[in-house]
Task: structure prediction
Amino acid sequence: MENYNDIKINFETFIQSFKTDDNDLEFRKKSFNHFLKSGFPKPKDESWKYSPLVKDLKKFSSFNFKNSNTKELPKNLLENYDHYSIVFADGVLIANDIREQGLVIKKNNSFLKSVKKEGVNPVLNLNNAFADKGYLIEVEADTIISKPIVVYHYYSNNFSSSFVSAKNFILLNENANITVFEKVIYDSSIEFLITANTEIFLAKGAKLKKYDLNSDNKYSTIFNFVKANLDSNSDLEYFTFSEDVNSCRDETIVNLNGKNCYASINAIQLLHSNCNHEIKLQINHNEEHTRSSQFVKSVLHDSATAAFQGKIFVDSKAQKTDGYQLSKALLLSDTAKFFSKPELEIYADDVKCSHGSSSGSIDKESVFYLRSRGINEQDAKQMMIKGFLAEVIEKITDEKFKKIFSKKLGHNSDDV
Amino acid sequence: MIEIKNLKTSVDDKEILKGLNLSIGKGEVHAIMGPNGSGKSTLSYALAGKEGYNVSGEIKFNKTNLLELNAEQRAQEGVFLAFQYPIEIPGVFTNNFLRTSLNSVRKANGKPELNAIEFLKIVKEKSKELNIDAEMLARPLNVGFSGGEKKRNEILQMSLLEPSFIIMDETDSGLDIDALKVVSNGVNSLRDPDRSFLIITHYQRLLNYIKPDFVHVLSDGKIVKTGDWKLALELENEGYGQFIN
Result:
């Protein structure tokens, strides 16, 4: 049995200094007790079996919290197009609140609105207990926000805490429409743990496009937990690009609660060296005439490890469900590993669901075809890899972001 | 121009080409016909430099021994293989592929690379002649192309790269009459005193459109008969039976 005494002391200290109301405090204590009961996830837990976090969480036997004096994001890290920005420097929200007609962006103070179903996920319990950071984005009904919101998470080299816990909310009222791009920038070289829980609520007819970029993280251990609830006719498009992340689990649960709502979840894992990344997805079709699509591609070099666990759950009342899931991995070295667990759980009888998963090396016939046209072997392979991943980028419906992510793959904009 | 001497190839200890000799002069069009399993495709792969074959003998191309070059070097030297089944590559856009290919060959030959605008101008011109519209070039390479589109795309690559030795591996397979005409016209427009062709085919049909100077019969890994284009007609009437024992 692990010893959580230090973390207990951390929690006591934390709640003494954290100003909040009694209800919130109660919830945090309860969550922390749940965490203590289970401890960090174990390899024998089915839903954590393939998770890199199981090993890496052990590194955190106590937390230290220190204030950083980083007060701004270096200008050269700003995106070069018109956008609203939310900036977290070393975990702390530093940008001013933004209020535009129909749009509210502010520090998230309403942590309690979060996950009521505590007690299941140990890392989420830990997040519930400690969360003191985060943002809230709310869009009023019938409002289309023309500029994207960019959320920057910047960890400077002054950063010296070992634990960041955030809870974020994205609330779209009826027929609201917004694009949110979230990116993490690591300039810090210490080992730390980030847990972030983002709760998304899409009311009738709302449309959210959310794009996440998590790249070049050499030291931290990350747990992202996203839960989205979709009402009728709403649309969620969620894309994550994970490149060379040290250790990360991206877990997403989508509840399709209203007729004709649609979730399109797409992801790229592009990993070198010893990087570890895990995607866990669960799409719950809770109502009839709901649609979902999961499309995940992984490119694994060196000794990188990736895991994909994707599930389509169809409730007995969710007739006429259309659920799709595909994961494909390209293994480019003998020591790269890919774990895949595609699942269907269906209780309705009039549904269309498909799932597939494949992994393999780069296709030799294709490489020969390219080489026979004068393209050298190295370039031919690069073309194949980019092409393989470009298929996911193609799913992005916002043209600007499609270009941004294509560029990340090394495609020039005039080539696409 | 091409001098193939005692070419032997094997895969997993199975010998396919068993000492093939063939000489193709500048500007000549040679056809190789033969039954299934005679080694026709293997010959095309051996010439283009596909890995996975044990190859011995000599393939002299101008002054170079092709066997010492890898696939991309052969292409850069001017060897072009038109595939029987052009490969579909999802996510790689045709335009992008064509430009990368052309620039790789230009670079290897000490010519400046073309920028996007210069390239588009050339590709537009060449694709017009082959009834290829811009929409097709904006699609991923060969993905969802019809049989005719795939073959026209091969001819387009040929005409962009301007190779001096072209091997066509059963280019007529899967083509209807109209597509066959377009493809043949494309090939005929590339005929040139400095360019040689080796056309591999089962049927004489293609040779009605692209008239060869010589016809060879390949059987059991060797050339067993050589003649002019009339040999193709003979084969069409009598079949390959006489060459199989």
Summary: The radius of gyration of chain B is 18 Å. DSSP finds nine helices and twelve strands in chain B. Residues 1-13+20-36+51-79+198-245 of chain B form a domain with the Rossmann fold fold (CATH 3.40.50.300). Chain B touches chain A through 34 residues (CB under 8 Å).
